[in-house]
Amino acid sequence: MPERVGTIREAINEALREEMGRDERVFIMGEDIGVAGGVFKVTAGLLDTFGPERVRDTPIAEAGIVGLAVGAAMTGMRPVVEIMFSDFTTLASDQIVNQAAKLRYMTAGQTKIPLVVRTAMGAGRRAAAQHSQSLQAWYCHIPGLKVVMPSTPADAKGLLKSAIRDDNPVIFMEDKMMYNEKGPLPDGDYTVPLGEARVHREGTAATIICTSSMLYPALEAADLLAEEGIDVEVIDPRTLSPLDDETLIQSAIKTGHVLIVDEGYQSFGVTAEIAARVQQGAFDYLDAPVRRLGAADVPVPFAPSLEDLTIPNAERIVEIVKEMRA
Amino acid sequence: MAKRRSPQAEAVESGAVSLDVLLDMYRRMVTIRKFEETVYDVYSRGIMPGLAHLYTGMEAVAVGVCISLNEQDNITSTHRGHGHLLAKGGDPKRMFAELLGKESGYNRGKGGSMHIVDMSLGILGANGIVAGGLGIAAGAGLSASLLGEGRISVAFFGDGALNEGLFYETANMASLWRLPVVYVMENNHYGEYTPSDKATAGTGPARAEAMNIPARSVDGNDVLAVHEAAQWAIGRTRAGEGPSFVECETYRWRGHHMGDQGDTYGYRTQEEIEQWMEKCPIRRFNDYLVGENLTDAQTLEKIDQDVQRLIDEAVEYAKEAPYPDPSEVFEDVYA
Amino acid sequence: MAHEIVMPQLGLSMDSGQIIRWLKQNGEQVEAGDLLLEVESDKSAVEVEAIESGILHIVLGPEAGDIPVGEVIAYLLAEGEVPPAGDGRVAESASEVVSKSEVGAEPAPQAVKVVAVGHGNGPRPGRPRSSPAARRRASQLGVDWRLAVGTGPDGRIKERDVIRLAESGEPAIVGAVAEEVQISPVAQRLAESVGLDVRELARQYPGKRLERADVERAIRLALSGAQPAVGPGSPGAAKPSRQPMSSLRRLIAERMSRSARTTAPVTLTTEADATDLVKIREGLKADSQTEVVPSYNVLMARLVAAALMEHPHLNASLDGDEIVRWNTVNIGIAVDTERGLVVPVVPDVQEKSIRQLAPAVNDLLSRAAEGKALPDELTGGTFTITNLGHLDIDAFTPIINPPECAVLGVGRLLEKMVVVDGEPAIRTMVALSLTFDHRLVDGAPAARFLQRVKQYIEQPYLWLV
C-alpha cells in the first residue's frame, strides 16, 4: 500500500483536530483563524467541528491573545494560540518572555503553563522586512521556553501533538513558504518526541545541520556534492530548545567538518550556539573550523532579486562544504 | 432623639452585613497594615533583599473586595501585592519567608515579593510587570467560562497600569466575550513617581465604559463603600453579565518602593501625605464601628493584639527558616 | 525595652550612609512619626522618622562618618531606662546580616605565589598550523605532526597530511623535537627553590610530565652524594684531577650564582657581648632536669626570630615586582656536610619555645649532616643563619640564600678584654655579619635589625620572657 502523503498544512490541521478531539481542554485562539480558517488556511474547518468557544477569532491584540492564553493555561486549559507572523511576537514579548516562560520557576512549581504559540516565520515570500523574520534565536535564549521547528509534514504533525501535550510553553515555528510542501504523513496518533534530531541523509565527508525549511537547500546541496564524490550527512535538529547535542556532536566526530544552516540572521543566532556546542564536544576531531550560514545581517529586502541574495541557498552550501574540505 | 443611622449601620442591623463580616474586614485590614509596617521595619534594617512595595494606607480596597470572594475565585495583583494576597487569605508566615528568600516561603524563595502565588487560594500572583496580571486575570475568566466553573476573576491594578496597552487588549476581549472578570482600579494618584494627572488623559471609568464595561468610582478608604461597590460588580459579573469596573480612590502612605524619595517627601508634599493619613481607612472604620455601637473598643483592641502576635510570629518564623538548597537553582525551569 | 535605631536602608544599592544631623536632642522625648535625623545616602539627603516612641539616646553622630546599614546609631529608651551595656554599636540585626567575605588566613610561606612558567601557550612564530583532528591522528599513529606537509588553507596541516606522513615511512618519531618541559607547578617550585635544573631532569624522563616525586627523587639523589663515574685522569700523576660536578655541587653552584647575579648584597658587621647568653647555656647544661640542651644555633635562631617579628622587612622576599612579607619566621641553618653545603629549615620559630625547638633542631641538623634531611625540610626558609664560629671565623660576608632577603653570619665565641662602664672586663664576644639585599631593604633599617639582634644576645631576658 502506498505511503500516505500530505502537506505540512494538512499535517498541522490534522494535529490540531486530533488533539482537540482528544482533550477538551485544548482550544485555539488567534486572528482570523476561525471563520477565515487562518491567513495560511491552516486552521480551515476547525470552527465547524469544534465551535466558536474553542476556535476563537480574536481582535488584533497579540499581547492580549498570549496574555489570556497564559491565564487560561494557569487555570486548567491547554491553549494553542496563533501569532500570524513571527515578527508580531514582538508585540507579545512580555507575555511570552516575562510571564509564560517564568511563572513556573518563580512560583517554584506551583503552576504550569501548557501553552503553544504557533507562528509563521521565514523569508522568500516578498513580504519585506516586517513580515519575513526568523526570530527563533530570541526564544531559544529564554530559559523556560521550548522552541520547535518542523521541516516535513510528518514532523509537523508529530511535533505539534507532542508540543500540545507538553506542560511547558512551546514556540512552534512554521515556515510560511513550506505549507504546501508534500511528504509522508502518517495516519493516526503519530507523535514525535521533543528534543530529538533526525538524520535525513548519512555521509562521512561533512555534516550539514539545518533547521526548518533549510532542510531543502541542504538536501539539494547534498545531491550536488554527491555528484562530485562528496557524501555529506544532513541532520535536522527539529527541536532547537532543548537541543539534541549528542546526535550533532557524534556526527561532527564522524565527519570532522560541520556546516550549520539556519534562516535567522547570521550574527548572534542559532548557528552560533550550535557551532559552539559542536566545537566543544567534537574539538579533537575537527579537521576545519565549524562554519555557519544564516540569513544576511540586513532587514529582509522587498525586491525579489535582492531578497534572494539574503537567504541561504544550495549553491552557497556547496561552496562552503568545499571550502571546509579544501 | 433618634441618632441618624448610616446606611451601613442599617445594613448591619438589617443583617445585610453581619457583625462577623465587619470584624473580619477589620481584622484583615489590620493584618495588612501591621504586615506592611513590619516589612518597612525589617527592610530598613537591611535584612530583606530585593524590592518591597508597600500597601500601607490602601487596605480598604483589597479587603473591601476580597471579603466577598470565594476561595476558588481568582485574583491577580500588582507589584504592590501584599495587601491583596493577605486579604485573599494568604499566610503571613509563608509570605514573610518568601520576602526573605527562604525555602519555606510560598515560592521557596525563588520569586520574592512581586511573584507570590498560592493556587489553592486562587491567587494567580503578584506581578513584577505593570499591568502584567491583566492578561492572566482575563485568561482565568476565559477558562472559567470554557470550563463552566462558577468562579470569577478579579484584576487589581493601579492608575499607572491603566495606560498600558495590555489593559485595553485584554479588557476589550473580556468585554467582547463577556468573561467573568472584575476590574478593580486602585487610583492612588501616583504611577511610580509621577502624579496621575500628568500621566492619564481622562478617567479610568470612562475608558472602561468606552469598552462597554459598566464602571463605578468610590472612596477607596471607606471599606464599606468599597464593599458595596464590589458586591455590585461581583454580583453582576458572576451572574454572567460580563466584566465590571470599580475605581477606588485611595493613597499609599509610603513611597513607590522601599527607599524612594516619596517616602520622605520627595515628589509628594508632607501636607498631601498628612491629609491622606487623616483619612486612614482603619481608623475610620474603627471609629465607625465603635461610634455606631456595633462593637466596643476592647474587641477591636483585642484584634489588634492578636494580629500583632500573628505578625510577630510570622517574622520569627521567616527569620528562623533556612535558605533554599543550591540544587534548587535548576529546578522547575520546565515542568 | 530599648528600641534600636539603626542606619536605615534607603535605597536598593545603599550599604552605608552618613548622619548629616540629628533633628532631636539627646535625652529628648520622641513620638512615633517624629522626624529624627537627616541621613545622606549616595543619592541625596533623606529625613528619617521614628517608628517607636521613647527618650532619645544618641550613639553615633555626624562625626562617625560612613556607617554601615543596620548599625545601631541610637536608642529610644523608656523613662529611667539605661541603654544596653557593652559595645552597643553592634545591632542585633548585624549578626543576621548575611556575612560578606570573611577575612581568610594569610597564606603560609610555602604557598608562594609562583607562576609556573608557561611554555608555548600562545602562537609562536614559525610554528605550523594544524587541525585538532590532525594532531589526534598523529598521536594515534605515533608520528610528529610538525613534520607533516600541510596542504590545507594557508598551509594548515590536516588529518590527511598526517596520514600521508605516516604512510611515507619517514622517520618522525615523537620526542625528537621535545622543546618544552612539562612540569607541574608544585614540582617547578620545589626545583627552583633548591636550584635544580629542570631541563636536565626532563632529559631523564622523556615525554613525561615531571611531578613533585620526580624532583624529590633528584634532590635525594643529589644529597646522598651519588656521583657520576670519575672521568679520565688518575690521581697521583702530575696532571690535575678532574671530576664532573656532583648534582649537589651543581645545585649549590646554581643557587650561589643566582644569588650573586640577582641580589644587591651589602654586609654589615658588629660585635655582641654574649657573656650572659653563654651563662644561660652553661646553666642549662649543668641542670640535671634539662633533657636537651639547646645549641647556640637554637638560641640564635630563636632570638633572631624574635627580632625578625619586630623587623618584618628583613623577613621578606622579592617576587617579580612585589615584596612578600612572610607572616612567620622559618629559619634555615647552614650545615656543612661532606658533600657540600645544605640548609635545612626550622619552621615557625617565633612561635616555639627553646624547650620545643632544641630537640627538633638538633635532630634536623644531624640528619641534614648525614644527608638524610627530607626535601621538604630544605625549602620554605624566610631567613638563614650561618655559623662559622667553630672554624675560628669572626666577621665574614655570607651570601644571601635566594629568595630570602638577608642572612646572618655568626662568628666564634671569643673571650676578650673590653671596657664595661669605664672599667676593663673580660667578656665573651661574638662577631655578627648581616648580609642583606639592598633591593628590598635599606642600610639603616637593616642596621636597626642587627642592633636588635645584638641587644637580644646581650640581654636574653628581653626575648626569653
CATH architecture of the largest domain in chain A: 3-Layer(aba) Sandwich
Amount of beta strand of chain A:
15-25%
The overall pLDDT average of chain A reads: 96
Question: Which residue ranges of chain A are poorly predicted, with pLDDT under 50 across at least 5 consecutive positions?
Answer: none
Helical segment count of chain B:
12
Please name the fourth-level CATH homologous superfamily of the largest domain in chain A.
Answer: Thiamin diphosphate (ThDP)-binding fold, Pyr/PP domains
Strand arrangement, largest sheet of chain A?
3-2-4-5-7-6-12
Structural class of chain A, please? alpha/beta
DSSP helix fraction of chain B: 40-55%
Uncertain residue segments of chain B: none
> What fold name goes in the CATH topology slot of the largest domain in chain A?
Rossmann fold
Task: Annotate the secondary structure layout.
The complex is a heterotrimer of chains A (326), B (335) and C (465).
Chain A: E1 5-7, H1 8-22, E2 26-30, H2 46-54, E3 55-57, H3 62-74, E4 78-85, H4 93-100, H5 103-106, E5 116-121, H6 136-140, E6 146-148, H7 153-165, E7 170-175, E8 182-184, E9 198-201, E10 206-210, H8 215-227, E11 232-236, E12 239-241, H9 245-255, E13 258-265, H10 270-282, E14 291-295, H11 304-310, H12 314-325
Parallel strand pairs in A: 2-3, 2-4, 4-5, 5-7, 6-7, 10-11, 10-13, 13-14
Antiparallel strand pairs in A: 1-8, 6-12, 9-11
Chain B: H1 7-14, H2 19-44, H3 59-66, E1 74-76, H4 82-87, H5 92-99, H6 132-147, E2 153-158, H7 165-176, E3 181-187, E4 190-191, E5 194-195, H8 204-210, E6 215-219, H9 223-238, E7 244-249, H10 270-278, H11 281-291, H12 297-320
Parallel strand pairs in B: 1-2, 2-3, 3-7, 6-7
Antiparallel strand pairs in B: 4-5
Helix pairs in contact in B: 2-3, 2-11, 2-12, 3-9, 5-12, 6-7
Chain C: E1 3-6, E2 16-22, E3 29-30, E4 35-40, E5 45-49, E6 54-58, E7 66-68, E8 72-77, H1 132-141, H2 159-168, H3 185-194, H4 198-204, H5 212-223, H6 247-262, E9 265-273, H7 275-286, H8 296-310, E10 316-319, E11 322-325, E12 331-333, E13 335-336, E14 341-342, E15 345-346, H9 354-369, E16 383-387, E17 406-420, E18 423-437, H10 443-458, H11 461-464
Parallel strand pairs in C: 12-16, 16-17
Antiparallel strand pairs in C: 1-8, 2-4, 2-7, 3-6, 4-5, 6-8, 9-18, 10-11, 12-15, 13-14, 17-18
Helix pairs in contact in C: 1-2, 3-5, 5-6, 8-10
What do these coordinates show?
The complex is a heterotrimer of chains A (326), B (335) and C (465). Chain A is α/β, with parallel strands linked by helices and 326 residues long. Chain A has twelve helices and 14 strands. In chain A, helix 1 (8-22) runs parallel beside helix 7 and helix 3 (62-74) packs parallel to helix 4. Helix content of chain B is 45%, strand content 9%. Chain B contains twelve helices and seven strands. Chain B has helices at residues 7-14, 19-44, 59-66, 82-87, 92-99, 132-147, 165-176, 204-210, 223-238, 270-278, 281-291, 297-320; strands at residues 74-76, 153-158, 181-187, 190-191, 194-195, 215-219, 244-249. In chain B, helix 3 (59-66) packs parallel to helix 9 and helix 6 packs parallel to helix 7. The radius of gyration of chain B is 19 Å and the shape is globular. In chain C, helix 1 (132-141) runs parallel beside helix 2. Mean pLDDT of chain C is 80; it is low at 86-125, 173-179 and 227-237. Chain C folds into three domains: 3-98, OB fold (Dihydrolipoamide Acetyltransferase, E2P), CATH 2.40.50.100; 120-232, no CATH class; 249-464, Chloramphenicol acetyltransferase-like domain (Chloramphenicol Acetyltransferase, 2-Layer Sandwich), CATH 3.30.559. At the A-B interface, helix 3, helix 4 and helix 5 of A face helix 6 and helix 7 of B.
